[in-house]
Amino acid sequence: xxxxxxRLTRSGAPRPGVGIVHLGLGAxxxxxxxxxxxxxxxxxxxxxxxxxxxxxxPGTRDALKPQGYAYTALEAGPEGDTARVIEVIEDMIVxxxxxxxxxxxxxxxxxxxxxxxxxEKGYCHNPATGDLNLSHPxxxxxxxxxxxxxxxxxxxxxxAARKAAGLRPFTVLTCxxxxxxxxxxxxxxxxxxxxxxxxxxxxxEAEGRFPSTMVDRIVPATKPxxxxxxxxxTGHHDAFPxxxxxxxxxxxxxxFVDGQRPDLGAVGVELVADVAPFELxxxxxxxxxHSPLAYLGYLAGHETIADCAADPVFAGFVRHLWTxxxxxxxxxxxxxxxxxxxxxxxxxxxxxxxxxxxWQIAMDGSQKLPQRILGTLSEAQTPCPGLxxxxxxxxxxxxxxxETGQPIDVRDPFAAELRRLSDRGETPAGKVAALLSLQAxxxxxxxxxxxxxxxxxxxxxxxKGARAAAQExxx
Length: 475
Ligand code: CS2
What we know:
This protein is an alpha/beta fold. It has helices at 27-31, 33-44, 59-64, 99-106, 137-144, 151-164, 181-196, 198-207, 224-234, 276-299, 305-310, 312-326, 338-350, 358-362, 365-379, 385-398, 415-424, 428-436, 444-464, 466-473; strands at 7-8, 18-23, 49-54, 71-77, 80-86, 89-94, 113-116, 171-174, 213-216, 242-244, 249-253, 270-272. D-mannonic acid is lined by residues 177, 216-218, 286-287, 290, 360-361.
């Protein structure tokens, strides 16, 4: 790593001990939680080095290992790029290569916290109800085998090892975009533990801690062309940098096992008693407009969120979503003005230095729609034509063909099922009815409430296209 870039490291000091294991190392955590943790150690010390695990492929480990797991974080603002080197990852395990090593690492006495970014689908729960899906193939595997595959499986096997060794449990700190995310992971862990060993579940329930968090920073997946951009900014090659926007926010419920955590408060993390209003605001206002822009923008031919935000039709469309549909059913977190929050979001979306692809955000819609869009629709007292258009946009998108007749590369754990349901209907009404019958996504109440407006929106999309449909609604 270049010696002349600002570095987030305790230079001259010995490397810290590992106090945190992170499951699911992707660009988001490297640009968000890892940076806060490195800054907290720089501010106040502590053995909070991170051992990272990839639960799927070796790509990140293979790229980062030759550079000692240090990487460049490029902050991309409208006025230019600034780079610094983040050195907080001490080691990395690729779980499928050696699941026993990951269980052992999680059970090490020095580990106090397990952070997670495993995406919505990584909790193996039913998004509409929150129950652990016991028939999920990875959960079925983890029930039958001591060496796990799933995130809940690793947490439970490691907690069992800690209990057997007379150690304290670790705090499970999820950093995924789910409402009440601490409860989601707690429920998944307890459901699995109960099925394996009821005494273990009793211990976890009494001693474990699962604080909820709200995480926010826009971090597109690193693209091959980003390597040249980072080299141009720094004069050095980095095999796997991250590029992120200037804004960041982390709100954490201050409930850790024995109070053990890095000094997050020293570096701007908001430690609060109740994260719920922050989470709902962020999920429904940011993610709840990202997904509509992703589906409708993609269908209209926009490659990135910045392209959507630069289009007056889509800018007006998201303004409508905020002011007329989303804000009316939200309770603002203490001290927050939701209209100011919305204005700041639009500025963030406009940042031309961040190329966040609509296709990337469109992934895994079946896992994202309930908390991002359907919650608002379920609570709304007045019609929500914009959010219904977004649901119809998702339905067109998962049908697999764009407005020019080109195939769409739909990535979703339910992709095949969604395509089958879409193909089953011969008319817009038939397709909408078939997709609304997917109970993992739509509760019966929501399906009944939105069937007519979503069908009308689907018909408009087919007749006029996504941009014209958004224009009818835009402010
Ligand atoms: C995005 C999020 O990919 C997506 O679904 O909506 O990753 C979003 O960029 C972050 O939640 C911002 O904090």
